[in-house]
Amino acid sequence: MAGKVTFYDSDLSFSSNRKTQGFQSASPDTSRFVPLSKAQHELDGSAQAQDQISRCSHKLRSLRPSDSATLKTELNLLFDHLISENYSSSNHDNIHPEVVCEMLMQASCLVPLSQEHLIIKLCQLIHQLLNQLQIIVDEHTLDVLVSYCSRALRTCSSWTHPEVLLALSSLVYGNGSKCQRHLPELLGLSGILVSYGDPGQPDIELRRSAVHCIANLCLSVPGQPYLEEPYKGVCYGILLRTLQSPKTPDVEDIVFCTVSTACFLMLLDLKLLQSALKGMQYFLNGGKWKPIPNQDLGTLLAVLKRFMFYGLPGISVEMPQVLYPAPLPQYETISAAKPEPSQDSTVQKKTAGSQQNKKRKSRGKGKKAGAEGKRDAEEGEGDDVSGPLKTAGGGVDQSGWSLGSQSVTGVTPQLYPSWKKGSSDSEFSDPEGGMQSKLRLYQARVRQSALQCFLAVVKCVEKRILYGYWSSFVPDAPGIGGPPPLTLLTIALKDPSPKVRAGSLQVLSALLEGSRQFLSTAEDTSAPRQAFTPFSAMLAASVRELHRSLLLALVAESSCQTLTQVLKCLAHLVSNVPYNRLRPGLLSPLWKQIRPYIRHRDVNVRVSCLTLFGALVSTQAPLPEIQLLLQQPGSTSALNTPGIRTPLELSHNWRQPARKDEDASSPGGEVEGGPEGPCWLLQLCVNLVTQPREEPYSDSDAGGSSGASLEPSPVRLEALQVLAHLVKGYFSLAQTSLLELGQLSARCLAEQEPSVQLHGAKLLEELGTGIIQQYRADANTPQSAKRVPVCQVVQFWSEILSGPLISALQNEQHPTLQTSACDTLSSILPQAFSQLPDNTQVLCITILLGLTYSENSLVKAAAVRALGVYILFPCLREDVMFVADTANAILTALDDRSPNVRAKAAWSLGNLTDTLIVNMQSVGLEFQEEFSDMLLLNMLRSATKASGDKDRVKSNAVRALGNLLHFLQPVHLGKPVFEQPLQEAMRALIDTVRGDATMKVRWNACYALGNTFRNRSLPLGSAVWSKEAYSALSYVVTSCKNFKVRIKSAAALSVPSTRDCYGDIHQFAEVWQALAQALEHSEDTEDFLEYRYCASLRSQLCRALLHLLSMCLPDDLPALRSSLSDQSRPVLQGFLVRYLGDKGVALVAGVDGPAGEEAGDYAAPEDGLMVLNETLTRLKGPLGENVLDSSEDLKTVVNFLEDVVRNFEEMKESDSKDSSVMLSTSP
Q1: Nearest Cα to 1045, choosing from 1001, 979, 1095?
Q2: Residue ranges under compositional bias (Polar residues) (predicted)?
Q3: What's 292's DSSP letter?
Q4: Are the C-beta atoms of residues 380 and 559 closer than 8 Å to each other?
Q5: Quick one: which H or E segment has residue 333?
């Protein structure tokens, strides 16, 4: 089916001075076509346009091919009328694509290839209709018309080919994958487009039209397949050769032409370049970049960098042919042409006169002359820019594609953009000035197309590959003492076109987005090295130069669109730079410089400024530098008084010192909100959300002119986001305004706009999370910050829960709001929840239980997760009825179709089973007797089933299984109904430990087995599954590549408290040998990242070995002796001595269980020495008496342990001597 799209605007136009040939009509009875009168045409535009197309289509269907003159006349009249219509107007929006396609096919049947004049008109009609109506033709029409155009290119005269190619380009637009039948003829070895698009083609019009066709063939429409090989590679080769080719033959003698003629010829080349760059952009948008022969990334980047500076005033670029991945920038030549004396004096005279002309024009413009962005109207490339330097022959200095329009005023200061100091268009006569303006316009379009193409490269090439070329596009030094490097920042600072400047900033933003891992190596906190500069220091210098250059761009920019891009680029930079590894001072200038833009007249600038503030308060929070900036007092006049420091005044007067009343950081001024008062950024965002906007800053697109109207919605939403980031990262500064922020959130929830409600709920969630983090035992709160009193937290939540939050929870029309409200409910402090009124507690629980049966999966998942949080509340976990209701809701959600719901339900089930273990230890048998056996059985079965689900579900399902198997009591195990589920649960855990699931899942499975081993009611030593469990753990502790999994398996093997739990001597020997082998090879790893866990792994293995020694029997001694061979003995002995000598090794804690759940798993090294001495005493005492004196097994084990103790004592004595010597020699 035909469809409508947005076409790439083509400025291709050709001469209409063609020879006409006779043509005869085939149907003499056919009525002549009479156009509608102007009065009729204005009656009803849309209906009239449809009727017009229908009449034309009907007229074409009534005609029959013949050689009569009547048919020729009819077609001429019909085509002329159709071509004269302006189809871009809104009157033609309702024209059906099918009617247009049918009309064009019928027209192609009526125009034979011998009538070249009519072919020209038909091709013009095809291009005009498809382009202006934005139509992509259907497959049948495409096949008919492409075949027609191909035959015309093969048979018609060459003067018709540009128009035919123009029509062909409109036909193949977005249809490259549907042209498979015609691709051999178009892109084959001797294809039409290949021959016409070759750089050796002398006719530049033909070449440009062919390149335009190739570009449209490369365009891929979403949902459609892309152009296939080998034609894809053919297109890439032609486009790249076009960009690499030298100047065309038509401009060889350009210096001998007049300026107007030279500019005209250059415009043709510029349009060719623009088409080639657009085609390359389409090619790159087709999919991920794949490095294949003849498609070298370095070559493409060199070409693009070359055209990024094409025609840039004051710069002539000689780029290398290929860019290579390198930490240092490659050499490039920048030559500033020196104007000749005679020309320079002439230019100076003209410039003096142009200043008077400017003054006369400024009087006519009035106040608009000083408004921001007025010089950037539409394209803005021709204003305030010095034109290309004329040569002695009157031409323009041109070196191939590397045209450099030189600045006639000399070198531009680096601290101020060159486009601020350009000369006027009045330097030229009117015809020459017009051509020069048009030339600069197209040069800027070439630069813009190159940047768009580079942006496509950034999106389709892997970042890790692209960062190898970082130094070619991002500066690492300001270039003092020499020419500055040509980078994206050069364009942002010096290009006269605001669109080109914005394009360079878009590319830089795309490069910075997701660059956190790459930039994480930047560091300059240490003293600089003299011998060499490490890469970390080079990257840090690049980061500092980015800050400096973007701040200059911010100060000098007056275009609102480009200013928005500067702020967005800074936000991406701030979000990815590791400021904790850099010297402080980068953020303070930026912080102070962007504050005036909060009151900018353009809403997009204000939104981008707030986005940057959000990035500043969220990156690596809390940063000491940001904390100090937030604590500084805010100035009322600087932020709230209209017109004090507008961005335009700032850009022109940035060198002038700030007034006293504008100095936001002046300690002596009378300011609002001192260090003890509310944070100024917090107060500002609250005002932006709640206070009416001020008239001097009202936005034309905000809607409504009432003085009481609020800020535009984007500004309010961004302000709420900044508040959320501020509360999350710097809660100690926001907690003084806790109640005020709660009222603000309640106000937002009460509004009608869903997006505002969502952001209000998110702010509430961050406030609740901040309070919870303050009350956690391991919370690293600043010493000066005190916890929010529980009574104040209770007041806060009482006001919130009596407000519109409950209505948001019940708002089924907005499930996303319900989801966010559920997350908000889950962020209530447990100590505060217990002090809320009983009816409020019941209301929260009832709503959450009801939402677990919602039809929306997001709402259901959020409600189940909130119940998983509530089940850990001390005031609720001992309530058997609440636990049972929550368990039933979770089990229902575990069978949901949505993987997200099942994952949240598994997490909540893990928390619920954690509660069962806590209650078993704190409440005792009373809770276990009241808890339903049938519900416990259902939980065991559901968790076993969930352990076979996806890894997101499985990781928490196995955790729940371990807790449930730990919770089972003899009364449960004695019932036959539990026998089969118990075996299935153990089989699920064993299979998960041995399986190929993610390391987190296997880690949790090992933890679950260790949790199971704590249940002394289980037949651990005699059950069939017992041997399999030990075998699985023994296998993992020796072979798993992940050391955290090994640590947890070793911990599980050391859990059983009696010798009988380890089974027979063979099972005990297997466990011992596995642990000894794992300790011996504990430093062998293929992954360097695992090496950081070696110490923890050795400590856990030593503890497990000592645990087994403490309970070994005489029958176990042969197995112990076999592992203490001559080769293994010194290694194991050394590790055990080191373990006893360690004063404390931090073992890896759990990731899914509650805090402190594994406190009893590990013993300190001092306890290990005690265990070792007790083992020696037992082996030499009663146990030794039962063994014959000739037993070599006992002697070997005892000697080994005595050697360990002796070496440890010697090491301890040596360390004490060293310490005493150091104390005696210290001054």
Answers
A1: 1001
A2: 12-30, 342-356, 399-412
A3: -
A4: yes
A5: strand 333-334
DSSP 710: B
Question: Which residues are CB-contacts of 991 (< 8 A; sequence separation ≥ 6)?
Answer: none
pLDDT at residue number 703: 42
Cα separation, 966 vs 928, in Å, equals 12
User: Helices in 11-138 by DSSP H: which ranges?
Assistant: 38-41, 45-62, 69-84, 97-110, 116-132
| CA–CA distances in Å: residue 144 to residues 61, 138, 153, 163 | 16, 10, 15, 18
Per-residue pLDDT, 618: 92
For the chain, residues with pLDDT lower than 50 are: 5-33, 38-39, 41-43, 248-257, 336-429, 635-675, 698, 700-707, 783-784, 1143-1164, 1188, 1190, 1223
Residue 481 DSSP class: T
Structure tokens at 1072: 């011992």
CA proximity to 311, closest of 353, 269, 282:
269
Contact 313, 385 (CB under 8 A): yes
Tokens found for residue 651: 């850009």
CB-CB contact of 785 with 735 (8 Å): yes
Q: How far apart are CA 1202 and CA 1208, in angstroms?
A: 10
Q: How much is the pLDDT for 1179? A: 78
| Residue carrying the six token digits 């048979």 | 155
What does the pLDDT read at residue 47? 59
CA distance 383 to 863: 59
Going from the C-alpha of 125 to that of each of 17, 90, 107, 109, the distances in angstroms are 17, 19, 10, 14
CA 1030 from chain centre, in angstroms, equals 45
Of 858, 872, 935, the residue nearest 904 (C-alpha):
858
CA separation for the pair 1151, 1041 (Å, rounded): 19
Which uninterrupted H or E stretch holds 318?
A: strand 317-318
Q: How many residues belong to the chain?
A: 1227
Looking at the DSSP assignment, which residues form a beta bridge with residue 634? 672
**Three-state DSSP class for residue 882:** helix
Residues 485, 541: Cα–Cα separation, whole Å: 14
Q: What is the pLDDT of residue 1212?
A: 75
Q: Are 1046 and 1078 in contact (CB under 8 A)?
A: yes
Report how far apart, in Å, the C-alpha atoms of 171 and of each of 60, 233, 503, 572 are: 20, 21, 29, 40
**Cβ atoms of 590 and 529 closer than 8 Å:** no
Residue-by-residue DSSP string for 995-1019: S---HHHHHHHHHHHHHHHT-TTS-
Q: What is the dihedral of CA 979, 985, 986, 987, to 10 degrees?
A: 110
- Tens of pLDDT, residues 1019-1030: 888 888 899 999
Residue type, 282: Y
Cα dihedral 1090/1094/1099/1100 (nearest 10): 30
Q: In whole angstroms, what is the distance from residue 196 CA to residue 211 CA?
A: 8
Determine the pLDDT at residue 689. Answer: 93
CA distance 378 to 841: 60
Task: Give dist(CA 737, CA 181) in Å, integer.
Answer: 70
